[in-house]
Design brief:
- The structure holds two protein chains of two kinds.
- In chain A, α9 (156-167) links the parallel β3 and β4.
- The longest helix of chain A is centred in the C-terminal third of the chain and has 24 residues, at 453-476.
- Chain A is an alpha/beta fold.
- Helix content of chain A is 33%, strand content 18%.
- Chain B is of the alpha/beta class.
- Chain B has two domains: 20-109, Elongation Factor Tu (Ef-tu), domain 3 (Beta Barrel), CATH 2.40.30; 120-275, 3-Layer(aba) Sandwich (Rossmann fold).
- Chain B has helices at 42-47, 88-95, 129-142, 162-167, 187-197, 209-222, 255-258, 269-275, 280-287; strands spanning 20-29, 32-40, 53-57, 65-73, 78-84, 104-109, 120-126, 146-153, 171-176, 183-184, 202-206, 226-229, 245-248, 251-254, 261-263.
- In chain B, the strands form three sheets. A seven-stranded mixed β-sheet of chain B has the order 10-9-8-7-11-12-15, sandwiched between helices.
- Chain B is globular.
- Chain B starts with 19 loop residues before the first strand and ends with a helix.
- Classes of the chains: A alpha/beta, B alpha/beta.
Chain lengths: 477, 290
């Protein structure tokens, strides 16, 4: 008989939905030991191949079993610098947990019985933070010491790259366009999923390693990439992220109180609009909020909206509409569950057609069409097909559009030597992450990443290896 | 946060400074206060061109607001901003004194004005928008254009930068709503007369949205190419959030990265007016705080 998976403790759904406090409280030591003991320690652990950066999951779980939490921490750190972050935001059910022996082969996502690798990782990461283990991470004494590298963007890719380069003795400057570092971890992911103290701690430990983070600095505007080289930087890493929110191009989309998910979440997360007027950035909240999309961003936006409704003493009424069904939703299963628990409503197989507003230009209604699933499209998911004559209206005095992002061209536009693909992403060599400019590397969403933190970090790791090699070569001359 | 005086570690250079070097009140009457501020920002000063803006925060809990860079001085490494106290953030900015610091400052943002020889150019500035046409007037004058400037203010005491703009133009005309100075009426009255008499190659207008909308209406008849610089609400101001989206020629454009300048005849003015009022209720709330 397999042992039951250990449930993670969470804040009560009714209470938590009125705060921005972290929902998942994490494993206690005894929880972690119990869960770790369930691991089958497969001879050829499939979970490792399910991890985009190849964390040695089997070993770190064994170390937990031995109560060697420090050993577990450094096992993860060999491949992943930020276990406390990834343990919170990784879509584990599509990655390591889906590959786990306890998940049936071919399942779209992990079985309930799959080892809760992400909760164990988080336990280890939090142990690392509590005991300040990051300070003990080994420095590599490599050739390129005393050379300078510039990292552009302080999101997951930029932070991972900076940490890796610093460990190699390279002096790193991270340039961030916003006033705070963290990129999407700061402006996109709400505090109830990633407490700011964790993010601040991880960024601080990079600073303690000697990484210089310069906020308010928009490379491409104040300095070109060429000028950075002239100022003595010998390599540049582009971790620019995905930038521009997509809109649907439907009628009435420019009405007031229709937000892109990026705007809504930036106001709430980066600018702390949920603490208005103590914080000065406002955000409006509607009585009938409609969120459009099926990804993690849609879940985050909906859960933030519901919290704002409660904080403003409104009856919670937030609905996610999605063109396909729950199975096809790209969001993490955990977020979907959490959203449901908190009272988010879901309307599947519904496609927005347009918005109607009042005389002041505020949205009042959304027009939708019902869909059914057709043949699979190029992504392998079954395509939504509109049902003729199925048009209907829903009350909607605020909408959040979370249907994806396009590349931000702020830097790439002024760097014509940089080769881009048809989507405006930077073209890179998949192994070295090298771009078309010598000494310039890229990773994360701007290099064709699909939006997971861990994937961006994996790309950044590969890029950092190439940067170290590139700088070592240079030193010989 | 890299700040002047605090962190000059050996061998490291400082990046964005944000100290207030100079401050002066341009007008403070009839409930309207317009202030000019020179702020140290060497890296921005070295790169900024006419028509571009910066985004700033006055404090940790503040908003990010965009302001056009009115002037820059590469040798003193400073930029000049001119603002009217209209909301909480501009009021807090107005409270900062020389020697004080901003919390955040980033730029230069937006496209620069296309500076070339057009021929005969009319620049229309209304209210605090006069500050925004000043760098454009200088740049276009420098490119050999014949410059006519039309300034508009509610009353004489609210007129700013008249002397500066006189120096950067071939002809300067003024309209005041109450007739307390020069011509009584609107800038668009003068504009319509000029366009009826003569042919011009470009009209460039910055001011309150109703003024810019009227300029667009006036120039439509003569078919004169007309550029306006829009003051849409922004958050990140780097193309990430879409707050500043405006419909231009039927397409969604982001003021921060696609603008802030657009062809006036293509702008959906009513949409912009409505979107700029989206936080009207919240602003009332904030203004009680100061």
């Amino acid at each position: 008989m397999k042992k039951e998976p250990v449930k993670v403790s969470e804040l009560n759904a009714a209470e938590r939905a009125s705060t921005f406090d972290e929902v998942v409280a994490g494993y206690s030591e005894s929880d972690a030991l119990k869960e770790a003991s369930r691991c089958a320690r497969c001879k050829t652990p499939a979970c490792i191949s399910g991890c985009p950066v190849g964390v040695d999951i089997k070993t770190f779980i064994s170390k937990i079993n031995e109560r060697d939490y420090e050993g577990a921490y450094f096992t993860i750190r060999q491949k992943n610098d930020f276990p406390a972050i990834c343990g919170r935001v990784c879509p584990a059910e599509y990655q390591c947990r889906r590959a786990c022996i306890f998940t049936k082969k071919g399942s779209p996502f992990a079985a309930r019985e799959a080892i809760n690798i992400h909760f164990l990782e988080r336990f280890v990461g939090d142990y690392g933070i509590k005991n300040n283990l990051a300070a003990r991470a080994k420095k590599v004494d490599a050739k390129p010491a005393r050379t300078k590298a510039a990292v552009i963007g302080s999101g997951p890719a930029g932070l991972a790259c900076a940490g890796e380069l610093a460990r190699n003795g390279i002096s790193v400057t991270v340039f961030e366009g916003l006033h705070k570092s963290g990129g999407v971890l700061r402006y996109g992911i709400p505090p109830f999923r990633m407490p700011r103290s964790i993010l601040d701690f991880e960024i601080d430990s990079l600073k303690k390693m000697g990484v210089d983070i310069v906020p308010n600095y928009i490379v491409g505007r104040v300095k070109s990439i060429g000028e950075l080289f002239k100022e003595g930087y010998s390599a540049v890493f582009l971790g620019l992220g995905a930038g521009i929110p997509s809109f649907m191009g439907i009628k009435g989309e420019d009405l007031c109180n229709i937000y892109s998910a990026n705007e809504f979440l930036t106001r709430v997360n980066l600018m702390s609009a949920y603490k208005f007027p103590e914080f000065h950035t406002p955000v409006n909240i509607g009585r009938h909020v409609i969120v459009i999309g099926g990804g993690n961003t849609a879940m985050d936006a909906a859960r933030a909206a519901l919290r704002l409704q409660r904080l403003n003493n409104m009856a919670p009424d937030t609905t996610i509409i999605y063109r396909r069904t729950e199975v096809e939703m790209p969001a993490r299963r955990l977020e979907i569950e959490h959203a449901k628990e908190e009272g988010i409503k879901f309307r599947f197989l519904v496609k927005p057609e347009g918005f109607l507003g009042d005389e002041k230009g505020f949205v009042k209604k959304i027009k939708c069409l019902e869909c059914r699933l057709g043949e699979p499209d190029s992504s392998g998911r079954r395509r939504p097909v509109e049902i003729a004559g199925s048009s209907f209206d829903m009350a909607c005095d605020m909408a959040v559009i979370a249907v994806g992002l396009k590349a931000n061209a702020l830097l790439t536009k002024v760097t014509p030597e940089l080769k881009l693909d048809q989507y405006g992403d930077v073209v890179v060599d998949k192994d070295t992450m090298a771009t078309s400019i010598e000494g310039v590397f890229a990773g994360g969403d701007i290099a064709g990443g699909e939006g997971t933190v861990i994937e961006a970090m994996g790309m950044a790791k590969r890029a950092s290896k190439s940067i170290v090699a590139h700088l070592s070569r240079q030193r010989r001359f | 946060m890299r700040r002047q005086g605090r962190l000059p570690l050996k061998g490291r250079r400082l990046f964005i400074f944000m100290k207030i070097l100079r401050k002066a009140t341009l007008c403070n009457t009839e409930g309207i206060k317009i202030t000019t501020m020179e702020i140290s920002a060497p890296d921005i000063a070295a790169k900024v061109r006419a028509g571009q803006f910066v985004v700033l925060m006055t404090g940790e809990k503040g908003e990010r607001i965009p302001l056009t860079v009115v002037d820059s001085n590469n040798s003193s490494g400073s930029i000049t901003l001119i603002f009217q106290e209209v909301g909480l953030t501009t009021k807090l900015l107005g409270k900062l004194e020389v020697g004080g610091e901003l919390h955040a400052l980033a730029g230069p943002l937006g496209h620069a004005t296309e500076v070339k020889k057009y021929g005969k150019v009319i620049l229309v500035g209304g209210g605090v928008g006069i500050a925004e046409i000043y760098p454009v007037a200088k740049a276009l004058k420098g490119a050999g254009n014949e410059i006519t400037v039309i300034l508009g203010a509610r009353t004489k005491n609210l007129l700013i930068l008249e002397a500066e703009l006189k120096g950067s133009s071939d002809r300067l005309l003024v309209a005041t709503d109450d007739g307390s100075y020069e011509r009584r009426g609107f800038t668009t009255d003068i504009l319509a007369e000029l366009l009826a008499k003569d042919k011009y190659d470009l009209v460039y207008a910055v001011g309150p949205i109703p003024m810019m909308k009227r300029v667009a209406d006036v120039t439509k008849n003569s078919g004169t190419s007309t550029v306006v610089s829009l003051n849409a609400l922004m958050v990140d101001a780097t193309g990430m959030c879409g707050c500043c989206r405006v419909t231009v020629g039927g397409e969604v454009k982001f003021s921060c990265v696609d603008g802030p300048e657009f062809e006036a005849s293509l702008v959906d003015w009513d949409g912009l007016i409505k979107r700029n009022r989206v936080y009207a209720d919240k602003e009332k709330h904030l203004c009680k705080l100061v």
